[in-house]
Amino acid sequence: FLTIWSTTQGYQVADSSLFSNCMTKIVKSKYKNGYPLKKMLDNIRQDIRESKNGEWYCVESQDTTDYDIIFQQRKSS
Q1: I need a surface site. Which of 5, 9, 13, 63 has the fewest CB within 10 A?
Q2: Residue 77 counted as domain residue
Q3: Is residue 29 included in any domain, yes or no?
Q4: The predicted structure's pLDDT at residue 38
Q5: What pLDDT sits at residue 50?
Q6: HSE of 11, CA atoms in CB hemisphere, 13 A
Q7: Nearest residue to 60 (alpha-carbon basis) of 16, 2, 4, 1
Q8: Please, what is the angle between helix 18-30 and helix 37-49, to 10°?
Q9: Cα 37 to chain center, whole Å?
């Protein structure tokens, strides 16, 4: 079970697309290299911290798995 959220409940962020944009950018650039999801989340968190308006985000994940989740590119038929 994995939960990811971008800010604390009850708070609003100034740039609501920042999390989505950072997530898309990092996942697209890292999944082909076999990066585990946990490492991608660390990169997303760092990318947001370095962005303007990133101080309002609290990227956190709760993971109950004891294994790495790794994305694999689909093979085209």
Answers
A1: 9
A2: no
A3: yes
A4: 81
A5: 86
A6: 12
A7: 4
A8: 140
A9: 8
For the chain, give the percent of residues with pLDDT over 90. Answer: 3
Which amino acid, 37?
A: L
pLDDT at residue 28 greater than cutoff 60: yes
Domain-located, residue 59? yes
CA–CA dist 58, 28 (Å, integer): 22
Name the domain count of the chain.
1
Cβ 19 vs Cβ 6: under 8 Å: yes
Residue 32's pLDDT band (boundaries 50, 70, 90)? confident
> What are 2's two structure tokens?
């994995």
Instruction: Write down the H helix ranges in 1-77.
Output: 18-30, 37-49
